[in-house]
Specification:
Blueprint: H1 2-16, E1 20-25, E2 36-39, H2 41-45, H3 51-67, E3 71-72, E4 78-94, E5 120-136, E6 142-150, H4 157-172
Helix pairs in contact: 3-4
Length: about 180
Amino acid sequence: MKHFFIFIVALALTSCASIRVSSDYDTKVDFSNYTTYAFFKPGIDKVEISDLDKRRVLRALENVLAAKGFTASETPKILVSFHTKAEKNVRVSESYLGWGGPFYGPNAGWGWGWGFNRPYNVNTSTTGVLYIDFIDATTKKLIWQGKGTGTLGKGTPQQREERINAFVMEILTAYPPGSE
């Protein structure tokens, strides 16, 4: 029973913290030729997040790219950029409260009491989307894009850094194509 409880708690925590990942790429590109990278500063400068989070994303990218065998270079074969987007999610639900429930009262023409109350519950949440772009340094064409969707949430700087590291790591598991 103890193991079952631990499993349920772990499942609940991971489901709350899930990151949905997808990727797209140019099928005509040989990705084995790309071993050096540099950050695409013009693209990164436009990202509308705090400078602290921007540096966290850059550090996470450096770490994951190094683990994948990439080296930073002044003459890179690939340019790495990222951008973000926030998606606001609105969920509206109806709940029937009061005397008589949904099928009784003056609207139905029969029943008891004064009718029913139909309040609407509106819940909003914000989901963050992180896109990581790999651009061929010679042609300046996008060759691979990874997308991670989830909630960053608030928290301590350490928690934000852990969450950003998880986003970047999850997204880059799909690079190179076919490695998932």
